[in-house]
Amino acid sequence: MKISALAPAEVARRLRQTGIVFRIGPVTAHLRSPVPAVAEGLCRLYADYPLEESGGFADFHVAIGPPPNLRRWIRPQAVFSFDGHTPFRPLPLEQAFPMFEWSLNWCVASCCNQYLILHAAVVEKGGLAAILPGPPGAGKSTLCAALVNRGWRLLSDELTLVSMGDAGLVPIPRPVNLKNDSIEIIRRFAPGAVLGRTSHDTQKGSVAHMKPPADSVERADELARPAWVIFPRYEKGATATLQPRSKAQTFIYAAENSFNYSYLGAQGFDTLGRLMDACDCYDFSYSSLDEAVATFDGLGPPAETGIQSHA
Amino acid sequence: MVSMGLADWDLLIRQARRANLLARLCVLLEERGLLDAIPPAPRNHLLSTRTLADKQAQAVRWEVDCIHRSLAKTGVPVIVLKGAAYVLAGLPFARGRLFADVDIMVPRERIDEVEKALMLSGWATTHLDAYDQRYYRQWMHELPPLKHVIRRTVLDVHHAILPDTARLHPDAAKLLDAALPLNETGDLKVLAPTDMVLHSATHLFHEGEFENGLRDIVDLDGLLRHFGAGADFWPRLAERARELDLVRPLFYGLRYTKRLLGTPIPEFMPAAADKGRPPGVMPLLMDALFSRALAPQHPSCDDWFSTTARWLLYIRSHYLRMPLHLLIPHLIRKAFRADS
Fold it and tell me: What does the pLDDT look like over B302-313, one tens digit per residue?
């Protein structure tokens, strides 16, 4: 049974009372929240996620609720709780839903050391996956949103989970976090895309989340093979250009921008090495999303490489 | 344990995470060959935290090495305390232990020298508020916590195990004299086994923070089981507690490890520690408080009295730490601070 099988009022009621348990790829979340915006976001963006029986095992017991002080009434705030523990400061109530998204990312990034976790979006087509790392603002979420609206499968817009050893990519499809101008850009690029409510004045500016394609959610158990590591950069007026980049440098960037590479020791090194061996690495500059999608659709399978490619 | 259902595992993982004992639990299951029999979802959490604990054990060794090198020129002997000491001494129960900071002890008369040398290597003081600085330096048994400017690691430098103003007066010089070397040059040390036990018990039963209460009593159990197997350990422990004025914490330590964790304790020990028994019905009252404070601070472990019990123990710890004419102004000051 999916979340969409529940009427919105029922979703809100359960969130207020026992909570809702649902599965996102390899993890199960148990969410409680009396905040209407959270119920609304869940109904709109998580409709396709499978419900799990409560009373089983959940990886993350999380809640978004009012803080235990006057700020529940005066200029109201929301606070995230991870099973009773509150690791972050409260945010304005208006940001309750983005807060849930960010907090759940934090749960995965800090509790799932069975994977090497890279800070990158990842999408797949024809069995081959493209990993999109890059600093905030480089446009990885925008490009990721564009690709998944044109037939690419969403694995994640934020967390690339690499399974240890064989370097397979584990999907954890979640709503895509769009910021500022990207919100309008994606609305225009994909009028059919479902976006949640926009929250203004967050730490990242205005943010809205885009519903992942139903197919991506349904195929969340299907691992993907890494084929390309592509650093997107939006550049005004640029024609879409792929520029090969060094695998060694890409390795180092990925390691430095991993959430847990430093914990994983030799196993992490081997896994990341295997991932880089399997991938062609590029810098990608673009200004038109249509051109960018065409470039991605035209990517050939990665070159068969061995150790010498690191030289 | 292997017959537990998923709902039981759900609760156990949550409580163990809150108690900072997930990785320790993982090691215990592994040592008994039971890890593979556990359902994959909870097992992932055990292993994931175990990975973190292994990394921390390595990081703690490196950190102590950095501290040791920073202080080498001063020639001051460094005594490593608590978790870092258990790892460096290779004690079996330290496998899977998680850390927040490193604790060391140095002779009181050398503490200025030590602080300067550490500052030169990048450890800067925290708690920049003038009142806090004075509070630590005048009354406490440690410097305000130091933080390394690059690695962001936290270091507590002690010169004693209790403040001067505390009700009990263990002589820090005796602890330093009995400490055992970890290296050939003998300037890196850990406390002697009896002193390690007494320090662990003193820390647990005289400090007011119980966030890691269960983890700390698990440490104490680990120490007693490990050292308790040695010849004469127990009589020496009783004797040492008298010498150091720490019979009261020993009394509590033995009482609660035995009750909560079934720690094997020889028959004669309770009598030897009985001088530390608080008068009258106090032990029963303390049972009511400690049984709650030593449980994981998870909603599923709390009852109507848990929050109050922890608050009472917090007040008690301050009361034990300093006389009322110092304590009351301090607590008032803390209560009305801008950042609290």
Answer: 889 998 999 999
